[in-house]
Hints:
CATH class of the largest domain: Alpha Beta
Radius of gyration: 21 Å
CATH architecture of the largest domain: 3-Layer(aba) Sandwich
CATH topology of the largest domain: Rossmann fold
Number of strands: 12
Helix content: 40-55%
Number of helices: 12
Bound molecules: nicotinamide-adenine-dinucleotide
CATH superfamily of the largest domain: Leucine Dehydrogenase, chain A, domain 1
Largest sheet: 7 strands, mixed
Mean pLDDT: 96
Order of helices and strands: HEEEHEHEHHEHEEHEEEHEHHHH
Strand order of the largest sheet: 9-8-7-6-10-11-12
Number of domains: 2
Amino acid sequence: MNLPLLPSYISKENIGPWHIFLQQVEQVAPLLDKSLQPWVETLRRPKRSLIVDVPIRLDNGEIVHFEGYRVHHNTSRGPGKGGVRFHQDVTLSEVMALSGWMTIKNAVVNVPFGGAKGGIRVDPRLLSQSELERLTRRYTSEISSMIGPDKDIPAPDMNTNAQVMAWMMDTYSMGEGRTVTGVVTGKPLSLGGSLGRQDATGRGVFVTAREAASKMNLPIAGARVAIQGFGNVGEATARMFVQAGARVVAIQDVSGTVVNAAGLDLAALKRYQLENRTLSGAPDCELVANEDFWSVPCEFMVPAALESQINRFNADRITARIVVEGANGPTTPEADSILAERGIVVVPDVIANAGGVTVSYFEWVQDFSNFFWSEEEINARLERIMSDAFNAIWQMSQARSMPLRSAAFVIGCSRVLEARAIRGLYP
Ligand code: NAD
């Protein structure tokens, strides 16, 4: 039969992060078991994508419209799970890619979720707190047909936090006529949030960095670390490295790049960033050009901001021995090849930043059972899941001589496609 080969939203031109996700799937497809080959196409097609109009009234009475998205990439292994991003550059392509990476990530750490993601194309810095609340509530209402505690469970991502999750939970609960805590994770503790969730992604980034370093006989104590992004993920990762005796020598956020070869004072820097909304002018460090961030001498580099930050223009300048992907999709496939040729190990996003969704899974379980665990219990379980998953990936990468990203994708894709195959086709 003469079927169209590509869905309408895929063109030969670069279509952004989704194109990168497809390239990553293409690379591992031939490495998957023969029995799974007929199902690979599933990964190239998000299950469902919703674009919504989000109109809100500004404080000055004006009505403005924003575009919002929610995508279920794959739900073969369980309900959709993935964050909500508020950013002026969010596109459907980006949300599709982020949902695809969630599918792989959830399978890699073996939590019983599929992959989903959402976002609004908005610069939240331009909104007041009450405008942000109206935006969040209207968006939640518009995507309410797609979410639910056993359907799809959103969580925080860039520029969203526990407060935004509380508004989402409240809005969904009003529609249901009862309190549904399990509809989102990353909530405040007082609303069924989990201890340890705030730092979970950064903790996971650190655990995978430590495991990789130990395989490579690279000590953490005394090591130099460069981190892009000083938000939820970047800040917690930086703190964990310093607690283990490393020095954070460079930090870049949206406002600029600061360096100090003797080690930055993280607490002072965070205080300064919160008070001034910029790193520029922070004490005890030097402000350098953003481009110089990539060549800072270091052993670990942690991109923890946006996609495609490590690319063919800067990959040959990176000095680190290990790149640990705190962000989703921070390295382009071209940069991956350059780093591999230069012997730089990349711990891929689908394992490195999986700590957040792992503790989100704990939160969801705690909400269902209304029984809450101690922080020690949560951190210990997180450590075990992250280090076991990392070690399985490392072993496969050694045994089959493939980069860690390919090994992680082989493990993740196989789990997803096995579930898909055994479920069979409906109808
Ligand atoms: P955040 O909003 O808390 O922080 C983002 C940081 O990135 C800020 O410091 C911001 O200034 C910086 N940034 C933004 N644009 C930048 C630019 N152009 N150049 C340099 N820095 C820039 O977001 P977050 O939750 O820390 O998320 C960061 C990344 O981690 C994203 O890719 C996200 O998808 C991923 N991630 C987050 C979680 C989580 O639990 N929050 C979990 C897994 C993955």
